[in-house]
Amino acid sequence: MSNPPDRPDNPERGERPATRLAHAGRDPTRFAGFVNTPVFRGSTILFETVDGLQGGGGRTTTYGRKGSPSIDALQDTIAELEGGARTLLTPSGLAAISATLLSLVGAGDHILVADSVYRPTRLFCDGVLARLGVETTYYDPLIGAGIDALLRPNTRLVFVESPGSQTFEMQDIPAIARHTGPRGIWLVADNTWASPLYCNPFRLDVDVSIQSATKYVVGHADALLGAITCTERASEQVTRGVQALGMTAGSEEVYLALRGIRTLGVRLERHWRSGLEIARWFATRPEVATVLHPALESHPGHAIWRRDFTGASGLFSIVLKPAPKPAVTAFLESLRLFGMGYSWGGYESLVVPFDVAAFRTATEWRSEGQGLRFHIGLEDTGDLISDLEQGFEVMAALV
Ligand SMILES: *Cc1c(COP(=O)(O)O)cnc(C)c1O
């Protein structure tokens, strides 16, 4: 494991993230001393006076769709950890992405989206946004300051995701921000890989940071949830957009996320350590052509990872050397401890094959062997490696 850079202090409170994880967004004195904020279910909120009903009492929550003490607790916790002014919850990570885009752009606008972006983000841009008159250009995720050449007078937003989904390109977000910031172009980041703990995108000058809380915040593969965290400048427009879209988070999901986030620190440290150990092991294997993990010194984006991140999650990819398809299928199907299925961020290890060559438009993804994305869970790494070893033996018999 490479030496982690020092974790930054919380600038406001002088407390480190592990401490804030345990205490942010909680006020037991409001709930009879109970440690956890209870689950609030409901639509109608009653008022004693007409003035109160009409917003006079200073209460911000007037209807269940606009919030509850449980929603506030989670929103405040995520906002504090990510270092933003305000967080809004959505029913899924993809809903956080679509609501942010619908809030910030409109007909006639042009947006720039990283070619390595999460595929459903791309489908939203090419489908819904195109139909509404928003033009999307995909750009090379390694572009950095070169983004300048792609900005047009009507460019309203640049979308980054670092590292990229499946292929793990690291983006130079500050270099991009130096060109978007002065022109007032919104800079939006999908920060799911790092979780709110290992990257603070507001230090990198983004306007909006998106989390699929479904992943590490919930952490147990038992709920879907999204979070949009904004700067002061973006907050009003995004809040109006999310409320106009009628987006709200279910009370059960919010409770599961609040429960999950309290242990995010210890879980992530283990995902980080185990993921890196297994990535290093893959790098020694003759079956493997490349390991795509930004915390490996050999990764082309390693310097950016060291500069901008304070840790790594358990998600990375490998590219196998060319092998017959039935051999790769046999490898995958022989694994006992790695489930095959989408999503990640739970306590369990997962693997999915991927192929991005068919849908990239700004860059060419060339690899001769099969790409495999792994999520390393909280299991014993010795057991995981034994499982992978037996899988490679099964594969070898068919090569
Ligand atoms: C999973 C994922 C999403 C979507 O999250 P859901 O909660 O499944 O809608 C968005 N971005 C990234 C990078 C993801 O991995």
Mean pLDDT: 95
Distinct small molecules: pyridoxal-5'-phosphate
Number of helices: 13
Strand order of the largest sheet: 1-7-6-5-4-2-3
User: How many strand segments?
Assistant: 12
Residue stretches low in confidence (pLDDT < 50, at least 5 long) are 1-11
Question: Hey, roughly how much beta strand do the residues contain?
Answer: 15-25%
Structural class: alpha/beta
Distance between the termini: 33 Å
Determine the fraction of residues in helical runs and give it as a percent range.
25-40%
Shape call: globular
Largest sheet: 7 strands, mixed
How much is the radius of gyration in Å?
A: 22 Å
Order of helices and strands: HHHEHEHEEHEHEEHHHEHEHEEEH
What does this structure look like?
The strands form two sheets. The chain has a seven-stranded mixed β-sheet with strand order 1-7-6-5-4-2-3, with helices on both faces. A five-stranded mixed β-sheet has the order 8-9-12-11-10, covered by helices on one side. The chain is α/β, with parallel strands linked by helices. It is built from 13 helices and twelve strands. The N terminus is likely disordered. Bound molecules: pyridoxal-5'-phosphate. Pyridoxal-5'-phosphate binds next to helix 4.
